Amino acid sequence: MKKTLRQFLVCLVCCGIAATLTACVDEDEFPDTPQGNFEALWKIIDEHYCFLDYKQHEYGLDWQQVHAKYKAQVNGNMTNEQLFEVLGNMLSELRDGHVNLSAAHDLSRYWQWFENYPANYSDTLERRYLGTDYKIAAGMKYKVLDDNIGYIRYESFTNGVGSGNLTEAINYLLLCRGLIIDIRNNGGGDLTNAEKIASRFTNERTLIGYIQHKTGKGHGDFSDMEPRYLDPAAAIRWQKPVCVLTNRHVFSAANEFTLYMKSLPNVKIVGDRTGGGAGLPFSSSLPNGWIVRFSAVPMYDTQHQSTEFGIEPHHYVSLDEQDLLRGEDTIIEFARKLLAK
After folding, report:
1. Which of 8, 69, 255, 298 sits at a 20 to 30 Å CA gap from 132?
2. How do strand 178-182 and strand 149-154 relate by DSSP bridges?
3. What is the pLDDT along the chain (341 residues), one digit of tens a residue?
4. Which residues of 301-322 are buried (b: 16+ CB within 10 A; e: fewer)?
């Protein structure tokens, strides 16, 4: 059955998934020992993580070899800090920013999806372009640049945006020749905000990708791909060209927003490849109470390709050192010239 994106998100809520798209999975009991916690964590990932086959294909991940490698580092005399380090290192083998181990004393994380790449963003330059006279509507900052190009800065999809906020912003920018939506360094948040904003830029129902669900404990046990659609908003919609600015720090819900917008004909993605994060995260607990979050539901683009490792822009543009010295943002300036055409 075909589902719109809104129906898909409603299904998530009806299935008991919270706004952060996390939930619990039932696991067999393991003893609360270093070895027991290690085996529990490895098995949770083995049976529920959704990218094991994909990452074996992409970079040779072998989860059985990972088990052997890290089991040898676990013993009954370990401190909690030592065990946490070993388990965190094991999870890093997945190369997934959605995978975290949470304890009272620390949070394991994998950030190399953006740390190993150029920033392609400067908050100093952002302040120069925004100035002090910009408008604020919920999580959005917006203004009209001096060449009559509209500019919206949206820093996090955790910042809610209401329908009224979007209507006011679009009305204010309505006479602009084009619009820049800058989501660089946006690490994600609530998918409903991504859908709500993207729906203001299409006039017809648009296929934006596919989704699968785990149907068993095997690495390849998935349902058939189900299409996801973006429906146009009932309120005022933007009709002119749009550039969405991205860098490697664009992740999770921001990565999905990029996917939605790239599916629309009047939108160009400008900047660097996004950081990815194409799996909806779920969570489970270990015998000692530590919480593991992991990707459990894979999502794909319109070509049935995973965007777990990011989405390519239409135009690759990086910040230029000489432009920085002149106080210019190379990526914003490229988008302005593109929209001016």
Report:
1. 255
2. parallel
3. 444 444 443 334 333 333 344 444 444 689 999 999 999 999 999 999 999 999 999 999 999 999 999 999 999 999 999 999 999 999 999 999 999 999 999 999 999 999 989 999 999 999 999 999 999 999 999 999 999 999 999 999 999 999 999 999 999 999 999 999 999 999 999 999 999 999 999 999 999 999 999 999 999 999 999 999 999 999 999 999 999 999 999 999 999 999 999 999 999 999 999 999 999 999 999 999 999 999 999 999 999 999 999 999 999 999 999 999 999 999 999 999 999 98
4. beeeebbbbbbebeeebebeee
> In whole angstroms, what is the distance from residue 202 CA to residue 205 CA?
8
Q: Is 179 left (phi over 0), alpha (psi -120 to 50) or beta?
A: beta
Site of tokens 């998100």: 9
Q: Token digits for 264?
A: 């629309």
Burial class (CB in 10 A: 0-12, 13-18, 19+), 236: middle
Question: Sign of torsion, CA 277 189 120 323?
Answer: positive
Could you give the CA distance from residue 260 to residue 267 in angstroms, rounded to a whole number? 10
Query: In whole angstroms, what is the distance from residue 75 CA to residue 213 CA?
Result: 36
Distance CA 40, CA 35 (A): 9
Burial (CB count <10 Å: 0-12, 13-18, 19+), residue 105: exposed
- Terminal Cα distance for the chain, rounded: 41
Task: Report how far residue 107's alpha carbon sits from residue 90's, in angstroms, rounded to the nearest whole number.
Answer: 14
**Angle separating helix axes 191-198 and 5-14, nearest 10 degrees:** 160
Tokens at 212, concatenated: 């699968």
Cα–Cα distances in angstroms (integers) from residue 201 to residues 179, 180, 278, 317, in the given order: 11, 12, 22, 23
